[in-house]
Sequence to fold (96 residues):
Amino acid sequence: MTALTKADIIEELHVKMGLSRKVTAQLVDDLLEVIKGTLAKGESVKVSGFGNFEVRDKKPRRGRNPRTSEEITISARRVVSFKPCGAMRQALKRSS
Fold:
């Protein structure tokens, strides 16, 4: 299984849009900065036809170290979750 990387995205857009790699890379970087900044403020990011990214607060919880079986407390933290839109879910169903 391979992963789509930022470099892959830049290359795909470079070919499709006919822009230079430098301009395309800056465009991708700027887009990702906008998304990161919005999520860092605790706001959701909704991409029509793709899905929603949102920040969720997780409460502290009890866990267990798998090596030692020692109980530990996992601290509270903020995580980003993604929920695909209906069109994305349908596309994923068709491809499986």
